[in-house]
Amino acid sequence: MNHLFCKTFKNYALPVLTVSYLWLASCHHASALPFEVLHWWTEQGELESKQVLVEHLKVNDIEFEDFAIVGSGGGGAIHVLQMRALSGNPPEAAQIKGPDIAEWNNLSMLIGINELTDTSAWEHFLPKVVLDDVTVEKQYMAVPINIHRVNWLWLNSKIFKQYGLAAPTTWKQFFAVANFLASKGVKPVVFGGTPWQDALLFESIAISELGAEKYRQAFEAFNHDVISSDEMINTFKLFKQLHHYATPEQQGQDWTWSSQAFINNEAAMLFMGDWVKGSWTAIGKKAMQDYQCVPVPGTKGVFSYNIDSFVLFKKAHSPIDQHSQSIFVDTLMSPTFQQDFSKLKGSIPARNDLDLSEFDECSQLSSNDFKHDIKVPSFTQNMATSSHQKAQIIQLISDYFNSDSLSAEDAVKQLGVMVKALTSK
Ligand code: GAL
User: What is the mean pLDDT of residues 56-61?
Assistant: First the structure.
């Protein structure tokens, strides 16, 4: 039975007509059209928040079809998406963020959101950084759903209480706490062992050492003077000092491994964006009881953001179901979806007009800081550069972190050469 007909019938005719149950059942069945969505939410907390999306879509007769690519902070997903898109068979929607939105739009593969639904109210409830993030040439080209904070340091409450430790706010304090814990036989900090996780730590250190403005100049504008500055060399040196706490078993491990080690009280501290909180919520752990969230040392007053958003694709070989796409957009932008989703995901809603009183304290802090702090785009989370530029930069950063022979000076020189090659600057 025709999807649009069913929808219209249910919305307008149902209240005044008596219809047979069978008729409605067939209508409902036929109207639940499969809607394929690419994403990389495959860890427990991510799966639970994704399920919120599935349920909200189901209520609106859209059947979510999973196109999930495991892990790596989305690195793998982008490659698979490229292959599907090049073969002319993209999914209906995909989790694409930051400058990649414009790159996909340049290939003329995306549908403008304004063509699907009335977006005139968006500017009243979306913060400016969010609006800018999803706008390409004055058109909304993606639907933003949430905001993650990246520059968090997580503290294990049990270990911090046991040793009567205070949260470190400077790197000096951080090393004092870490070395004290190591002297007691406690693992001070746990890392995953993939390039994007190494770079995520580097990025927060860069914010602390360069400050917000120079961080942007280096990793968003690719300003050569900042990239080759002494402050950048110091950033690399400080970053390398953290490698002292790395251990061989972390090699190749994704963030779910370090997240579990931390919450199982195997390590006292963890650097990660607040999606990690979703993995703890999923197993009943509570903010400020089992763990605490503090800005990475030296980054108080700066909020490095990661906005999850979805683009919608044109279809070359099959009819576009624009009706479903418009329902998808409206569902993602609805207040209840944005609240229900972020509560489980560890983020805050993209909309700034929603009640967060039922959110945990870390999300409330995040929301407050987002309002008042200087905001910088997280380059490891594709917010500052395209993912292909990012991939090369994070590989260099990771190689340096794990190398015994590469000096900070040489790494900075290599970064300068790489950025010139990537941007012809
Ligand atoms: C990020 C994504 C987050 C989070 C994380 C780890 O790129 O924006 O939503 O899930 O990857 O998978």
Answer: 94
Give, for ligand 1, the residue of 96, 275, 305 to mutate: max count of ligand atoms closer than 8 Å to Cβ: 275
Ligand 1 centre and the CA of 382: distance in Å? 10
Residues of the chain with pLDDT > 70, as a percent, come to 90
Decide whether any atom of ligand 1 lies within 6 Å of the 40 Cβ: yes
To the question of pTM greater than 0.90 for the whole model, the response is: yes
Q: Say how many Å lie between the CA of residue 46 and the centre of ligand 1.
A: 8
Q: Please, which residues bridge with residue 108 across strands?
A: none
**Sole residue written with tokens 């739009």:** 105
Residue nearest (by alpha carbon) to ligand 1 atom 12: 73
Residue 19 has pLDDT above 60, yes or no: no
Name the closest-CA residue to atom 6, ligand 1.
Answer: 73
Domains of the chain: 32-149+306-362 (3.40.190.10), 152-305+383-423 (3.40.190.10)
How many other C-beta atoms lie within 10 A of the C-beta of residue 196?
24
Alpha carbon distances (Å) from 195 to 201, 310, 389: 10, 24, 14
Pocket of ligand 1 contains residue 46 by CB under 6 Å: yes
Minimum mean pLDDT among 42-51, 75-84, 317-326, 395-404: which range? Answer: 317-326
Q: Which residue's CA lies nearest to atom 11 of ligand 1?
A: 73
- The per-residue pLDDT for 5 is 36
pLDDT of residue 205 exceeding 70, the answer is yes
Please give the backbone phi and psi of residue 178, each rounded to the nearest 5 degrees, phi first.
Answer: -60, -45
pLDDT, tens only, 372-415:
999 999 999 999 999 989 999 999 999 999 999 999 999 999 99
Average pLDDT (267-274) is: 98
Both tokens assigned to 371? 């309002």
